[in-house]
Automatic annotation (TrEMBL):
UniProt-recorded name of the protein: Alpha/beta hydrolase
Source organism: Oceanirhabdus seepicola
GO molecular-function terms, A-Z: hydrolase activity
Signal peptide: none
Superkingdom of origin organism: Bacteria
The entry's keywords: Hydrolase
Domain AB hydrolase-1 span(s) in chain numbering: 24-120
Record InterPro entries: AB_hydrolase_1, AB_hydrolase_fold, AB_hydrolase_sf
GO cellular component labels: membrane
C-alpha cells in the first residue's frame, strides 16, 4: 500500500494479527526494505505489525533533491502514525531506523507504548562518518561488488562470514544483478542524512516510554559505550547484549533477537524484585 505523507509516496504493509489492539511499527536499517523483516515476523504475529519504507528505501519515493536531514524521516514517521491513527505503538528501530525512532521518541514519548533500539546510536561520530563516506565513494565508482564488500564486512561478525560464505556469495550476486543505479543514489542520500545526528545527551532524558536497548558484542559500527549511554540516560530502559553477533544482530541471531523483544513487550509494567 502507498500513502502520501508530506508530499512523498510512502510504501507500507500491515502484517501479523490485523485485529489486535496492540500495534508494532518496525523501522528499517539503512539498506533494508519492508521485505527485510519478513523472516522475523513469526515471533511477533500476535501484534498488528506496520512496516514502512522511508524515503529512498524500498518501494517508497526517491528524494527529489540532492540531500536532506534525517529529521525529514522523523516527520514522515510522525505523519504515518497520525494518518493511520496508530494508538500507542511499540516502536522497534534498528540502526538507521533506531536513530529516527530516537528523534521521534524525544518529542512524542507520551504517544508510544514502548521503544526498542537495536544496534543504534544517538550520535554519528567521526569514525562512523568516515565509514559512511567510504560507502558513498564505493557507490560513486559504480562497482557493485566493491560496494558489497565494503559494507557487509562492517555489518556481519567474523564468525558469520566464516560460516555463511554461500549465503554471502548469493547476496553479492543479488546486489550486482538486481539493484539499479537509483538504489545506490538513495543509499548515498540516506548516509548523508544521518551525518548530522548529534542528539544532546540531556535530551535523551525526555524519553519516558519503557525502552529496550539491544547491542551486540561484535558490532563494528556502533560502540558498546553508545549503548551504555542510551541505557544510562533513558530512565526507564534496559540493555541486553547479544553475544557472537555483529551489527546485523537480528539476522545473525534471530531467535535471540525476537525473544528479547517479545519478552520485553509482553512484560511491560511488570517489576520483578528479589
Amino acid at each position: 500500500m502507498v500513502i502520501n505523507l508530506n508530499g512523498y509516496d510512502i510504501f507500507y504493509e500491515i502484517k501479523g494479527n490485523k485485529d489486535s489492539i496492540e500495534s508494532v511499527i518496525m523501522l528499517n536499517g539503512l539498506m533494508m526494505s519492508t521485505m527485510s523483516w519478513y523472516p522475523l515476523l513469526g515471533g511477533l504475529d500476535n501484534y498488528k505489525i506496520y512496516l514502512l519504507d522511508f524515503i529512498d528505501q524500498g518501494k517508497s519515493q526517491k528524494f527529489d533533491g540532492k540531500e536532506y536531514s534525517q529529521d525529514l524521516q522523523k516527520r514522515i514517521l510522525e505523519s504515518f502514525i497520525h494518518e493511520l491513527d496508530i494508538r500507542e505503538p511499540h516502536i522497534i528501530g534498528t540502526s538507521y531506523g533506531g536513530e529516527v525512532a530516537i528523534r521521534y521518541a524525544i518529542e512524542n514519548s507520551h504517544k508510544i507504548k514502548s521503544l526498542t533500539l537495536s544496534n543504534t546510536t544517538f550520535c554519528t561520530n567521526y569514525l562512523l562518518q568516515e565509514i559512511g563516506r567510504g560507502w558513498i565513494d564505493a557507490c560513486e565508482v559504480e562497482n557493485k561488488r566493491l560496494f558489497f564488500k565494503c559494507t557487509l564486512s562492517y555489518i556481519y561478525s567474523k564468525e558469520f562470514y566464516e560460516e555463511r560464505k554461500d549465503w554471502l556469495n548469493t547476496r553479492e550476486e543479488f546486489f550486482v544483478k538486481n539493484l539499479p543505479s537509483d538504489w545506490y543514489e538513495g543509499i548515498k542520500r540516506l548516509i548523508i542524512s544521518a551525518e548530522d545526528l548529534e542528539i544532546p545527551v540531556e535530551k535523551l532524558k525526555n524519553i519516558k516510554a519503557p525502552t529496550m536497548i539491544i547491542s551486540s558484542d561484535e558490532d563494528k559500527l556502533i560502540s558498546k559505550e553508545d549503548s551504555k549511554i542510551l541505557n544510562r540516560e533513558i530512565y526507564n530502559s534496559r540493555c541486553v547484549s547479544i553475544i557472537g553477533a555483529g551489527h546485523a544482530a537480528m539476522y545473525e541471531k534471530p531467535n535471540e533477537w525476537v525473544s528479547i523483544i517479545k519478552g520485553f513487550i509482553e512484560n511491560i509494567g511488570i517489576d520483578i524484585k528479589i
